[in-house]
Structure formats: C-alpha cells, structure tokens
C-alpha cells in the first residue's frame, strides 16, 4: 500500500512539473492532418534539409517514409537521402557523438519520437519563439525553452526576432530581420514540419485507423453470434 501511494505521489509531482513547464508560455494551436500527404512531404523535406544534419531519426527508414508519403524511390533518393545511398537505411546522421557533445555541450537527441513526448503544440511554439539574446553562447534564446542550447535551425527561413517586454511578466517577439519566408509562409513551414514529426512518432497510425472500422464491424458480428450461441447452450439449463 505504501509503495502504491509513493508511486501516485511521484506521478502527481511529475505531472505538476510537466504542467508548469508547458503552462509557462501559451502554446500554439496546431492542426495535425496525417492524411495530407503534400504537407507531410513538405515537412519531410524541411526535416532533412534543416534537422538531419544534427538530429537523427533512427527509428524511421527512408523506404517506410516513401511508402507512407506516396513518394517513389527515385524521388526519395534524389531529394531526401543526404547521409546514405541505401533506401532501407534509417535516418542517421554522419556527425560523431563525441563531436556533437564537444560543439553543443550535449549530443542532440534523436527526433523520431519527439512529437509523442513533447507534443505538436510545444514543438510548433518552440520553433516559432526564438529570439536574439547576446547573453547566450549561441546568441539566441527561446520563450518556451529558456536558455536552450540549440541555435535556431530555421533562422534562414524565419529571420531574426527580438524580445519586446510588455510588462513584468509578459513578453512579445518582433521580427527585426526578415528571412527568406514571410511570417505566413514560415507558419506553413512549421505546420508541415510538425505534421511530419507527428507522423514519424507513430507511422502505423494511418494504417491502424484504416483497419479500425473493420475490426469494430467484426466485433459487432461476433457479439451477435456469441449471443445466439449462449442462448443455444443455456436453453436447457433451469
């Protein structure tokens, strides 16, 4: 009994910490549509262009991505495979762990499951709220993840933002140096990237949803058959 209570208290305290960290800055509303293959393809392209150089996705294979996203082997080989020439390889990086630790202070984490433990809204808000901070070693900071060690990977697209204080406890961001994309275009890029990261966290979700109705129909039919079998077996029991 004591062990159960201790586990419950530990879970409650952990949940409180997570809730407090996610509630510090209001998270964006994100619409995830895993059936939008064009969005997933754009997100995959952004991921391999700006993320795979440092972050791996070792639980996702290029061949699986091609099949699920409606891409041909030639399209994936030409446009997505930057670190390997084998279609069945996972999305690994060429950077050595010891080098990444020396450059960044820690080895960048694998991103295959990042959308599952961080959440799409957190990822979207995090990638949107970088701002210039001369006091940080990388020259930038983040409203969602204070004192983040990772520089803004999408700064060529978003540009640079500065922090504008609105009061003692509130802040806002101002775009002071535009990037290659307008704010609306960058918002679309984030939507596509987070959509892809969400897909990558559970690639079987689309297949599971496809077979789900058939499983429910089977269970419904089986229940009817089981009901009549029960009546037949118990009809002589008084």
From TrEMBL:
One of its GO terms (molecular function) is heme binding. The keyword Ribosomal protein does not apply. Gene3D superfamilies: Cytochrome c-like domain. Heme c binds at residues 51, 54-55. Keywords: Heme, Iron, Membrane, Metal-binding, Signal, Transmembrane, Transmembrane helix. InterPro entries: Cyt_c-like_dom, Cyt_c-like_dom_sf, Cyt_c1. It is found in: Membrane. Binds 1 heme c group covalently per subunit. Pfam families: Cytochrom_C1 (PF02167). The chain crosses the membrane at residues 211-229. Residues 1-20 form the signal peptide. GO terms for cellular component: membrane. Its cofactor is heme c. Residues 38-204 form the Cytochrome c domain. The keyword Transmembrane helix applies. This is Cytochrome c1.
């Amino acid at each position: 009994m004591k062990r159960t209570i201790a586990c419950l208290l530990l879970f409650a305290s952990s949940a409180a910490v997570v809730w407090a960290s996610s509630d510090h800055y209001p998270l964006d509303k994100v619409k995830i549509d895993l059936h939008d293959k064009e969005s997933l393809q754009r997100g995959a392209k952004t991921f391999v262009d700006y993320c795979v150089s440092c972050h791996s996705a070792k639980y996702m294979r290029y061949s699986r991505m091609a099949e699920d996203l409606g891409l041909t082997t030639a399209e994936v080989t030409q446009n997505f495979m930057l670190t390997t020439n084998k279609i069945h390889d996972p999305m690994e990086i060429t950077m050595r762990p010891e080098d990444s630790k020396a450059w960044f202070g820690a080895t960048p984490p694998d991103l295959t499951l990042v959308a599952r433990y961080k959440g799409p809204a957190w990822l979207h808000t995090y990638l949107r709220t970088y701002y210039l901070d001369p006091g940080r070693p990388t020259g930038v900071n983040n409203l969602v993840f204070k004192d983040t060690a990772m520089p803004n990977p999408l700064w060529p697209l978003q540009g640079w933002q500065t922090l504008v204080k609105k009061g003692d406890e509130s802040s806002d961001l101002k775009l002071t140096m535009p990037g290659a994309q307008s704010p609306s275009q960058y918002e679309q890029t984030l939507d596509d990237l987070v959509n892809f990261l969400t897909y990558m966290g559970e690639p079987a979700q689309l297949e599971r949803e496809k077979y789900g109705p058939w499983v429910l129909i089977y269970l419904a039919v089986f229940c009817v058959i089981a009901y009549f079998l029960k009546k037949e077996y118990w009809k002589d029991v008084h």
